[in-house]
Amino acid sequence: MKEELPPEGPPRFEVRVLPDPAEAAGAAAREVALAFADGLSDHRVFRPAFSGGSTPRLLFDALAGPAFRSLVDWSRTRIFFVDERCVPPDDARSNYRMAKEHLLDPLRIPKENVFRMRGEDAPAGAARAYEDAVIGEFGAAGFPRFDFVLLGLGPDGHTASLFPGTRALEEAERRVAENYVPRLSEWRLTLTLPVLNAARRAVFLVVGAEKAGAVSAVLRAEHARPALPASLVRPRAGSLVWIVDEAAASEL
Ligand code: 6PG
Question: Fewest CB atoms within 10 Å of the CB: 77, 162, 204, 210?
Answer without folding.
Answer: 210
